[in-house]
């Protein structure tokens, strides 16, 4: 009985013992679920919320009249020289000395090269000897003629006194006249010999190659020891030139304008030129002339443009962009109204010309649809008289689904017009 009673007492619940501590496992589970839901919500916003934003490119609206005259046409061309020459010798010969280098400036008449003068000098010496012989012949005939004239004069006196026969007198007169004719012939031969001597002097001078005008040497084509000729020998061993010089003061721009736009170009029209090598350098220029001939294959007309600025950085064959500008306005003339907007930013919605202006670019970019009041067409855009202001960023090539208030992502911005 005692053992059974002890067992029953052990099975009783002790009401006086403290309760076990409560478990926190459920709280941590709830917090984990809430955090996961928040992360899922953020991820969903990032994926689905941003997916609604359209990536666009923008351009900046610029004011008219603040940067000079408006452009009516843009074109490309090249710098060319009106005076450029490949200098060659007038005769065929071997180069003895070349006195030029690329980039060197030469003056008119300056010696550029010399040829071997052996042949020319020999011909001159021969011509000089012939001229001397001709002059000696003239002196000899003149002396004989003086004697014949004196003899004829004496005989004329004696024949009148009948001291000599008439036949002797006639013979003296014939000898005198013959010597007179011989003197004339010898004088003409002496003149021919003198002229030949002058020609050989020219031949000697032709062995010296001089600059025809002042300029800069752009190419050196011959070396000492080479054969040069004014005519091509066709074998590849004969040079046809000593070097090329360019008159840098004759540089101008040659532009080919599409024949559909040539009506916008007028002589004396102001031009702004920009060299491809120096894109930030604006060079003032002016239209010289419009060549009255069209290229049938390219449908273009050539335009000559004069550079108003001379600078060593401008060299032949450089690529250049030109902007044909409106004629200069007087200071009292009203400035053009409105702003310039690129054509790609103008769209049509419900039959109305609109543009989408980007607002709140720094935080959450959205677009505002603006109705435009358009003006005239410009070479690099469109004149807009209302709807946008200078400095606004407009969307280029807006997609059809773009609407007022839509979110956008700004891509690479285009250059301002």
UniProtKB/TrEMBL annotation:
Coiled coil regions, renumbered to chain: 131-158
InterPro entries attached to this UniProt entry: Beta-barrel_RND_2, MdtA-like_BSH, RND_pump_MFP
Cited Pfam families: Beta-barrel_RND_2, BSH_RND
UniProt keywords, alphabetically: Coiled coil, Membrane, Transmembrane, Transmembrane helix
Membrane-spanning parts: 27-48
Ranges for domain CusB-like beta-barrel: 253-325
Domain Multidrug resistance protein MdtA-like barrel-sandwich hybrid: 83-229
Family: Belongs to the membrane fusion protein (MFP) (TC 8.A.1) family.
PANTHER family in the record: HLYD FAMILY SECRETION PROTEIN (PTHR30469:SF38), MULTIDRUG RESISTANCE PROTEIN MDTA (PTHR30469)
Protein name as annotated: Efflux RND transporter periplasmic adaptor subunit
Species of origin: Lysobacter cavernae
Lineage summary: Bacteria, Pseudomonadati, Pseudomonadota, Gammaproteobacteria, Lysobacterales
